[in-house]
Design brief:
4 copies of one chain form a homotetramer. Helix content of chain A is about 35%, strand content about 25%. The longest helix of chain A has 20 residues. The radius of gyration of chain A is 20 Å and the shape is globular. Chains A and B meet through β7, β8, β11 and β12 of A and β7, β8, β11 and β12 of B. β16 of chain A pairs antiparallel with β16 of chain C.
Chain lengths: ~375, ~375, ~375, ~375
Amino acid sequence: MSDEPLGIALLGAAFMGRAHAHAFRTAATMLPGSPSTRLELLVGRDAARADEAAGQLGFARGVGDWRAAVEDPAIAIFDDVGPNDLHAAPTIAAARAGKHVICEKPLGRTADEALETWRAAHEAGVVHLCAFNYRFVPAIRHARDLIAAGTIGAVRHVDARYLQDWLVDPQAPTTWRLRRASAGSGALGDLGSHLIDLCRYLVGEIDAVAAQTRTFTPERPGGPVDVDDAVSATLSFAGGASGTLTASRVAPGRRNALGLEIHGSEGSITFALERMNELGLYLPGGPPGTDGFRTVLMTDPEHPFAPAWWPPGHLLAWEHTFVHELDHLLRAVRDGRSVRPHGADFEDGYRAAEVCDAILRAAASGRTEPVAYRTVA
Amino acid sequence: MSDEPLGIALLGAAFMGRAHAHAFRTAATMLPGSPSTRLELLVGRDAARADEAAGQLGFARGVGDWRAAVEDPAIAIFDDVGPNDLHAAPTIAAARAGKHVICEKPLGRTADEALETWRAAHEAGVVHLCAFNYRFVPAIRHARDLIAAGTIGAVRHVDARYLQDWLVDPQAPTTWRLRRASAGSGALGDLGSHLIDLCRYLVGEIDAVAAQTRTFTPERPGGPVDVDDAVSATLSFAGGASGTLTASRVAPGRRNALGLEIHGSEGSITFALERMNELGLYLPGGPPGTDGFRTVLMTDPEHPFAPAWWPPGHLLAWEHTFVHELDHLLRAVRDGRSVRPHGADFEDGYRAAEVCDAILRAAASGRTEPVAYRTVA
Amino acid sequence: MSDEPLGIALLGAAFMGRAHAHAFRTAATMLPGSPSTRLELLVGRDAARADEAAGQLGFARGVGDWRAAVEDPAIAIFDDVGPNDLHAAPTIAAARAGKHVICEKPLGRTADEALETWRAAHEAGVVHLCAFNYRFVPAIRHARDLIAAGTIGAVRHVDARYLQDWLVDPQAPTTWRLRRASAGSGALGDLGSHLIDLCRYLVGEIDAVAAQTRTFTPERPGGPVDVDDAVSATLSFAGGASGTLTASRVAPGRRNALGLEIHGSEGSITFALERMNELGLYLPGGPPGTDGFRTVLMTDPEHPFAPAWWPPGHLLAWEHTFVHELDHLLRAVRDGRSVRPHGADFEDGYRAAEVCDAILRAAASGRTEPVAYRTVA
Amino acid sequence: MSDEPLGIALLGAAFMGRAHAHAFRTAATMLPGSPSTRLELLVGRDAARADEAAGQLGFARGVGDWRAAVEDPAIAIFDDVGPNDLHAAPTIAAARAGKHVICEKPLGRTADEALETWRAAHEAGVVHLCAFNYRFVPAIRHARDLIAAGTIGAVRHVDARYLQDWLVDPQAPTTWRLRRASAGSGALGDLGSHLIDLCRYLVGEIDAVAAQTRTFTPERPGGPVDVDDAVSATLSFAGGASGTLTASRVAPGRRNALGLEIHGSEGSITFALERMNELGLYLPGGPPGTDGFRTVLMTDPEHPFAPAWWPPGHLLAWEHTFVHELDHLLRAVRDGRSVRPHGADFEDGYRAAEVCDAILRAAASGRTEPVAYRTVA
């Protein structure tokens, strides 16, 4: 394995692009042993603005066409954080060109699109990661570890919610996120896909869903809205657990409120992204009369990711999820191995998309819809 | 209207009977203008034990057969807090004998049974109340008032959970609550019915549901379990809102965790029964940069029920719900009017049962089931 | 020991009188084995109004002069919840007449007055209780039990706060509580005395204090204010711990916010009266990475007072403190023993007053003032 | 004003050095308009290890003697995050050499030392900043802005606590932080100095203190401890407010729990560093019955620092305080102005040290000690 810095191309210069650029730099300087990178290309909509953004984000140069990145031999990793309708084509092309690929969620606007993307990466033999970054919240990794260790017993139930409120105002203008053609779905693909991935990561495979969707503001400045403002679903897990899922972009006061509550046969876990440095945990035991949910501040030396950062009690941020995620990817690339199990690969991205599709089918049919997973092997 | 104290018969001497007995006494002494009562008859399973319990609970005497109460002209109000399979027959007989009736939830083990109970009370022309006592939590009444006043705008979504953990231990023995024949259903009828009633009270009529149920421990000391340990559902409201419902008696660490989160078009409300003196409220407005969920301590003079009790900041208890509820009933009886809208009458009890039945049908069929309400008029 | 009901006289018909009346009734009916009582005399300012209040609060009759109660052979227990300047004289007279006595805090407006009251009760040989009712919050009793069992090790620090906000409005009129002559002190005697008693109960004896007081509104409708609106102090404990004390009636948004945080050598305890059904507890141990403060809901069967009430998760109220306290007193009277260690007797009342006096001296002198306790033996 | 990057020398390669190095880099890339910097010199204890650390932290080279940095014309800013006994001499020398200086708190081990450091910087005419980084928490800046705007009226009371628990274990070895000669004081200078600065920043000047200190473990592996494990104090403010201060490194379960509660004449503010993205706020007003403390998530566009980062609801971290602080310093250097009022300059550093000294005097004398501030002008 060479010590050459890995050349990075990044598609997308909005806030997510900024977050990734910052994370690449931070991983390199703050995480000992993280493979070194060169921020080569920033891909934007037009060359001039991309070049300007490249300067701001610390990339060597900007280009207006993602094909330039695909063809550039200096690029080892193609990182696609563009809008949903720019996930599949660039990522597939990059993979076929032998680039390792990371793609923002949802991997595709539909399960079919996600499947094709996975297929391309799989056949190309490159490392692939679907950017379900919340797997890299320390509390989530810790929850996974605790569940895997049997600490709360067999999981029986999960309530999963992801609530935002930026569409409460009916005068908020439409964007690509509000059109099915460009986004695939609304709160479901944007927020619900995170929940689905976390449910799969923490609890296991989902095998059936029932659902309803709502669009409260079908017309906004800029045009009609044909995706869901909110979705509610029940989840059935292959392992026997049940669950509910709620995603909404019209929940007043909930800025970015991803929340989980998981009941096992011997304990419970809760998590709230707006207090992402904490994990709620109920484990019976201890002196008589002292049972209760505990609030674990996720900064102790034995907590995931914590040793790389600060002393106990010094909080991490949303942006650290990207630092952890990209570091994880870079090490997988360096070591020539899959990002699994702790990273979501494109199969995970595809499977989340399959559940999203099933939820839309269920909302349309009024039936519990089974989730059938395909494979590319 | 006479000033004669209202003679009370109470069926049930377990903790709920104790709670009602205490509440009758407390209403009479603590709430100015509450109609006076005489605690006449305690109905138990056998006369001797009922007589002993009567002494403990402050009733004049105990009897072993509810028919004695039905036939007793000294009884004005028949209060049935017995097990679910002793709701319909005694309550129907009491109503037909001209007693005003209050019956513990669920009103019937099935919608049919609840409908017959409602019909009997309706035809007898007596006052009837189904003991959905959480309507009488100050925070719930306040939430209703705020919603009715339009403070949070049109309701769009509600998440409703009621979680307990007394069945986590697989060695917890079976009881009448774990058999369909005696209970009707499990967590659904026991806990979920409260949620359904609160959803109807706060948000409006439910017109369709999808659901799944789980029984994790099908065999317990004492016999098999044929009701649900947990249920998850999606709710569709006639007014356009959607929702989720979760009820479980196997949620470790959740002793009695009824929780609501309601999103309107202009604000949000949250409630947690384990902190029942608080209401969570998000209303935008105020100085710039000060938006956030507020925690309202429900003891201010302008809060429901508060003026009857203590100065601000001095908490009320679970048992106060019964004081408020029974006082409400007594006044309705005295004034010859329905307990609606703030009390749940038997139509409300029936409608909750109809939703419960639809949830069981949906869990069995895997389909979204419409809820069709019948009437007795 | 006779089974005769204990005749009760109650001085004070305001909210505290109402709370005690309710508690006497509730103890008798809800707590098995609680000695029976007869609510005989309600003492008010004039006979007519006292008689009316007696009817409302369930007493046999009202009188306008406390001497009637002192002289009445039907009275076994004299319960003084009148204003502070009506604590000493009636309580001393009652004790000398052989009545068992319970007196609202502060026992005296000054330590001298409290000492004389204690002396009278001591010399009379009657049972005496100073109504520091927060000792009878289940969470407080449990904290005491945990500390006594060494669960958090040696106590090293306590922060104690009691915040209210009913004097924030400068137009709130003056009352007897705002005049030194009638009240002794302001937030200090009213709220701080509770903290002092809880510190002594939970941690141990206080041996020195430093302090400052503030009166932000020296003139109110109705007259001048010559007591403290707020007081801050440091506490030194005989056992080596240190602490801070804050009491205020001008803390916006804090309706009745008594709060404690106690650090031991091996764990910590927190308590907040506005969430009085919860105890916060930090105890290291358990699976790796799971340390954190736990929130214990104080309604489990192994919790103090809980078995007498409802199933887990069903909350108690402020008023239950009086039920527990008066039951405790009644049993002590019946059994002919002191209310100690869990009840505060008049020595405890006196000692709290001695600390209050030391705080006022320290605020005046700007020095750390030792607390010297006298005795009546 | 030149566009030359500002050359940085950093004294200290432990976690605080790492935090500053990361912050310099992050400010440059993430905050538009932030002056550019060159990380030139890392100063450590010996040249070899410093050079290695320089590589890790992104500095051009390492040196073993701070004098090299003082003499280096490439250095514009000297950043001292070394141990307390390496604050004064290097910082004074750097200032005298014309470097702009930033120094970790406490500025000096004593007020005298801090005064000399301030004097040197003042006389040299350089920009100086004392690294009270919590001023740069968005919630703290917002609290300051709200107080300055009169939103909570006149401040009357502040409770300030800073609790950690890394010294609970009596076997935790001694370090320079536990020796008076090297640290000046214990929890007081380490944690209490932050509280003092925040009190001064938010409320105003402190004019008198009373205090007690405790050392629970006077002997540790590695030697004796002659500084405080914990300190409690009362604060008197020149503007009329009172307060309490608690600092402890032996508070089990409190990893890094800086907490503030501030009462004004018209509202209240609370803050907890372990939930640093939130501000608690009580402001009366709004629809009837809706008063309560609100939890403001400090990520809205109108919140301080937020526009530079992520969309609402995406949390910031402890390390952002340094990014904001160093950016603030760099702009002051570029613009040739003081870091005041939002940055703490060396006068602020000195004044905090003066309060610390007064607290130690008060703890020794048992008296309320006035705080007399000197000046260097």
